[in-house]
Fold this protein.
Amino acid sequence: MNEDAANKESPRQEARDWLMQPERVRLWEDALHVLHISVDGKEHPNVHPHRVFPLSGYVDYLSFLDEKDKEVALVTHPGGLDKASRQALEKALDRMYYVAKIARIDEITESMGVTHWQVQTDRGYAAFEVVDLNHVRKMPDGRYVIADADGNRFEIEDVRRLDSRSRAILLSEV
């Protein structure tokens, strides 16, 4: 066996080095609510967590990207993080994956290919723009998921539960 082959890590060892176990990771927010991650003592400021699989429900893997969208860590089983890290992570994920629930549609107008929405959500009134109707997605279960021009997400959980006017506005536009 030559020296290069002996020094080469096995695929299992490479995977262990690449996937961060929760005990190697610490997360915290600074006074400005910026998330930081430390992996084996090396700090990465201003990171953003992204769910890898699955996108909803229990999360087995989280990717952390820096300001340049470069992955700095892939953490497996984040439920095993220490309590303070889990709390910082949950706050960051809530901000990242917040989806306002649309309860009523007041108006949808179109100008030069951009639709302007005025709606009532579970958080109150919202006005937003959708630049491409491909960002209004009807899901197999009857939900609609809408991404606005700023990347915010809105959801209509069940079109049948909208009032008849809201339903008519929605279906005339999408």
Notes: The CA atoms of residues 79 and 86 lie 7 Å apart. The first helix runs from residue 3 to 7. The chain has four helices and 13 strands. The mean pLDDT is 86.
